[in-house]
From TrEMBL:
Single GO molecular function: transcription cis-regulatory region binding
Keyword line: DNA-binding, Transcription, Transcription regulation
Stated name of the protein: DNA-binding transcriptional regulator, AcrR family
Pfam families, sorted: TetR_C_24, TetR_N
Biological source species: Nocardioides scoriae
Segments of the chain annotated as binding DNA: 35-54
Lineage of the species this protein comes from: Bacteria, Bacillati, Actinomycetota, Actinomycetes, Propionibacteriales
Length: 208
């Protein structure tokens, strides 16, 4: 996989700046509709200057998707590996950490969620997402098995709904607004887990 950071940057710009602007253009115009020339004009550079920073447009896409997936993968790995905690606690941590990753890397995560497998880079990203999804579903199944979540709902569906809720945040959440990422993560987790708690048995009716 090409590394956009493998080339030395020109004065005034670095690979990180080029990547940030490329992600913004990919999100607003679409990856296929965005050319290296578009990126060069946006930055006020020549196309040859862009290629001094990065080897190709595809390398920019790969780096952007890796940014999102590396963050999500690391957050999930930490949650899964946590010792001395219940499955439901690990699931809650995974959910909250996913929200924090989304807030910190919102443009890259937004781009990831729009990937449809139209290239080898996109197919590789989708495969990494599948692995993440399977880990999340495993946490849900473990939480159901320990009795922390309802057992009358399909764990796979629960996992998709939980993290579909997280993914939907890209449509309206904007960093720097009145809602801090930590507060957002707690709100999402509280809403999800309050709604997923197994029903409590009714106390027996008092004898007449």
């Amino acid at each position: 996989m090409p590394d956009p950071g493998a080339r030395r940057g020109r004065p005034g710009y670095d690979q990180a700046t080029v990547l940030r602007r490329a992600i913004e253009l990919f999100n607003t115009q679409g990856y296929d509709a965005t050319s290296v020339g578009d990126l060069a004009r946006d930055l006020g550079l020549t196309k040859s200057a862009i290629y001094h920073h990065v080897p190709s447009k595809q390398a920019l896409l790969s780096a952007a998707l890796d940014e999102a997936l590396d963050g999500l993968g690391a957050a999930l790995d930490r949650a899964v590996a946590a010792t001395g905690t219940s499955a439901s606690e690990r699931l809650r941590t995974a959910l909250e950490q996913s929200v924090l990753v989304l807030a910190e890397h919102l443009p890259a995560v937004t781009l990831l969620l729009r990937v449809r497998g139209n290239s080898e880079v996109e197919l590789a990203a989708l495969e990494r997402r599948r692995v993440v999804d399977e880990q999340l579903a495993g946490l849900v199944r473990a939480a159901v098995a320990e009795g922390a979540l309802r057992d009358d709902l399909d764990p796979e569906v629960v996992s998709r709904l939980l993290f579909g809720t997280v993914n939907s945040l890209v449509e309206w959440y904007r960093p720097g607004g009145p809602l801090e990422p930590q507060a957002l993560a707690r709100t999402v987790a509280s809403l999800a887990f309050d709604g997923l708690r197994p029903p409590q048995p009714h106390p027996p009716a008092p004898e007449a």
